[in-house]
């Protein structure tokens, strides 16, 4: 998978002509003992289709084929232990796929093997027929589990246990980032050889364009009708309209705790993930005070290595909530927690006691139930949607909301997951109050009508309007219906509300671009694959919906994509920069922009996690901002549980522009 120097094969040919005595006369196929076959690429994290779809690639760095019959590829712990067979061509590749030939779409495996690789690292040894170690990798020096980007070898002539000889793939293939049976994307020097179709949108090294990390709370109100917007990263207040400086460098946890602590009647919380101890303690305290606290939490596949540790931590915190302040299940201070799929108690006694739980969960009944198509046994302490006794939906779909409703009045929502990484970046940062987490924003709105709309959505998932859920009546994902008001007036501000699945939220965005965007659109997005939305923006930008056709119209487009998805074949970033995708589909045909837009991959320390679109900002044409948890994708629109707000207000849109400009300049963009 490397782009080998073109004279190397010629050198081998000349060598064989002028130095024949040094050539083997027995066979043209190398026998065991060669040192030219190397472990070249490892998808230890699986693929974007399935984390179980691991694969490994070998490369023959010689001018002759090599017979691999009887060779071994083993790990130190014995899993996997693979016996090889067949022949690897000269300067060719040998692809091993786990379980079946579906791990790499469209490329046939040379060998199918069994046994999972650990995401925390393995020691791999390639052993020839004589028992000699031909190559070795002693840990994972590269690769990205979130982006499903493989670990690529930089130079086959340098040892596999050299950390500097491995890099993370940056080129898209059908199932993530990697180069199965092709030259490695990281190039011979590891700096990256992917053709970016012009390449001018690669960001500079990460830096901080804002030296000020002080929290600024400039526009906050407690009055009815208040719409408070907060950013956890810096902003450029020089772009503020008069008296409208944004709230930036804000500690979201403090804002949420303040709002939760103000509750006098009820708290409804819908959370994709939660592991902030102060937030958990606040919820427990409010329940102990007699406040009705209901929590919907997303269940996850506990076997998925991407979620395993995080999901275990979340379950420990959720059990603390379920037990309440007295740590006893079934008493008045308990928090009621419900989910899209059931959750089971963590039974590791050391972990339990470290979180202040009883060392054993013996007071939780052990049951055997069916989840999806699998039978699962465990101590079930959080119930889930269930249309028949003992049968539950799998946790494959995401309850991706992050909102709270306080006293049927305040709505707290945004892109921020209630987690350490989402705000601080690490436990150490959290202890010091350093905001080094993912880029996010939050909104809190004081309007009972909006709270009632969110409560209708909450109750649809909960299955009831009472303190206890009804698993049979409950509906998540595509089983929900369009049952809420979509347009309200908040003290003169038009606000639209759309939930997924069921309300066609992303479709409403496309309609808005087509019918209501007249001057500009700026955006920051984590993941964007919806073709209709990008096509409407293309037509605004260059007056055409067709591939590589159009003339600039004067409409202004600026945007940022999270770097993990910048090169994914389905990403809108590929179309907008005029690049040819590595593959296409019916829903993503790769309709390239003739005039590439000034859009960039982010240059944040961690993730660009927002899902924000600003339309006609700082104009007289109804400045509007679209915010919420919804990624602009089929899953975000038709599968996951999500919420989206469309706020028609010049001041709010301008606050988002202040934060956008800071992110955009940091990524290498220019503000005119």
Overview of the structural elements:
By secondary structure, the protein is an alpha+beta fold. Helices cover 20% and strands 23% of the residues. It is built from 13 helices and 33 strands. Strands 15, 16, 17, 18, 19, 20, 21, 22, 23, 24 and 25 form an eleven-stranded mixed beta sheet that branches. It has an eight-stranded mixed beta sheet with strand order 26-27-33-32-31-28-29-30, sandwiched between helices. Strands 8-7-2-1-11-12 form a six-stranded mixed beta sheet, with no helix packed on it. β29, α11 (572-576) and β30 form a beta-alpha-beta unit. α2 packs parallel to α3 (277-288), α3 (277-288) packs parallel to α4 and α9 (505-516) packs parallel to α10. The chain is globular, with a radius of gyration of 27 Å. The two termini are 42 Å apart. Mean pLDDT is 89; it is low at 1-34 and 188-207.
């Amino acid at each position: 998978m490397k782009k080998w120097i073109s004279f190397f094969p010629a050198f081998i040919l000349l060598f064989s002509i002028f130095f024949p005595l040094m050539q083997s006369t027995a066979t043209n196929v190398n026998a065991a003992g060669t040192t030219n076959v190397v472990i070249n690429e490892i998808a230890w994290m699986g693929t974007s289709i399935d984390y179980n779809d691991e694969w490994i690639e070998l490369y023959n760095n010689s001018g002759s084929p090599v017979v691999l019959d009887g060779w071994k590829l083993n790990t130190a712990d014995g899993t996997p232990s693979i016996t090889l067979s067949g022949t690897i061509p000269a300067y060719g590749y040998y692809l091993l796929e786990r379980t079946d030939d579906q791990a790499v779409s469209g490329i046939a495996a040379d060998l199918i093997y069994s046994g999972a690789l650990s995401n925390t690292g393995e020691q791999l040894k390639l052993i020839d027929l004589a028992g000699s170690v031909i190559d070795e990798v002693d840990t994972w020096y590269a690769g990205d589990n979130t982006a499903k980007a493989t670990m690529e070898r930089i130079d086959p002539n340098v040892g596999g246990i050299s950390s500097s000889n491995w890099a993370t793939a940056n080129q898209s293939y059908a199932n993530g980032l990697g180069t199965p049976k092709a030259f490695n994307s990281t190039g011979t020097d590891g700096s990256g050889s992917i053709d970016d179709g012009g390449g001018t949108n690669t960001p500079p090294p990460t830096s901080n364009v804002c030296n000020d990390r002080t929290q600024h709370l400039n526009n906050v109100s407690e009055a009815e009708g208040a719409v408070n917007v907060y950013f956890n990263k810096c902003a450029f207040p020089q772009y503020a309209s008069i008296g409208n400086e944004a709230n930036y460098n804000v500690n979201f946890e403090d804002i949420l705790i303040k709002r939760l602590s103000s509750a006098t009647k009820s708290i409804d919380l819908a959370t994709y993930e939660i592991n902030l101890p102060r937030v958990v303690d606040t919820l427990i305290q409010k329940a102990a005070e007699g406040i009705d606290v209901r929590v919907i939490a997303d269940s996850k596949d506990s076997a998925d290595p991407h979620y395993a540790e995080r999901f275990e931590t979340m379950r420990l915190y959720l059990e603390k909530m379920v037990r309440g302040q007295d740590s006893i299940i079934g008493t008045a201070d308990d928090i009621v927690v419900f989910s899209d799929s059931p959750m089971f108690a963590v039974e590791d006694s050391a972990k339990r006691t470290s979180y202040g739980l009883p060392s054993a969960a013996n007071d939780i009944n052990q049951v055997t139930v069916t989840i999806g198509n699998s039978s699962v046994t465990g101590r079930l302490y959080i119930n889930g949607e269930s249309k028949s006794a003992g049968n539950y939906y799998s946790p494959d779909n995401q309850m991706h909301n992050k909102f709270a409703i306080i006293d049927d009045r305040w709505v707290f929502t945004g892109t921020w997951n209630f987690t350490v990484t989402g705000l601080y970046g690490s436990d150490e940062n959290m202890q010091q109050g350093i905001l080094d987490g993912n880029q996010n924003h939050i909104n809190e709105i004081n309007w009972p009508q909006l709270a009632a709309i969110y409560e209708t959505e909450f109750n649809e998932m909960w299955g009831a309007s009472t303190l206890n859920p009804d698993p049979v009546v409950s509906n998540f994902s595509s089983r929900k219906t369009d049952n809420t008001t979509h347009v309200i007036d908040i003290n003169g501000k038009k606000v639209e509300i759309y939930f997924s699945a069921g309300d066609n939220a992303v479709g409403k965005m496309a309609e808005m671009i087509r019918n209501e965007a007249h001057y500009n659109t700026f955006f920051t997005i984590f993941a964007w694959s919806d073709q209709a939305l990008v096509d409407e923006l293309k037509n605004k930008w260059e007056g055409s919906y067709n591939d590589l056709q159009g003339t600039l119209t004067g409409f202004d487009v600026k945007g940022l994509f999270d770097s993990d998805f910048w090169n994914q074949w389905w990403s809108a970033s590929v179309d907008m920069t005029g690049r040819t995708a590595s593959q296409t589909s019916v829903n993503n045909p790769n309709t390239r922009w003739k005039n590439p837009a000034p859009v960039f991959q982010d240059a944040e320390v961690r993730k660009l996690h927002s899902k924000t679109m600003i339309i006609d900002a700082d104009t007289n044409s109804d400045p509007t901002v679209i915010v919420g948890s919804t990624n602009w994708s089929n899953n975000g629109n038709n599968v996951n549980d999500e919420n989206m707000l469309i706020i028609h207000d010049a001041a709010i849109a301008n606050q988002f522009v202040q934060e956008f400009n800071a992110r955009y300049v940091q990524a290498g963009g220019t503000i005119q």
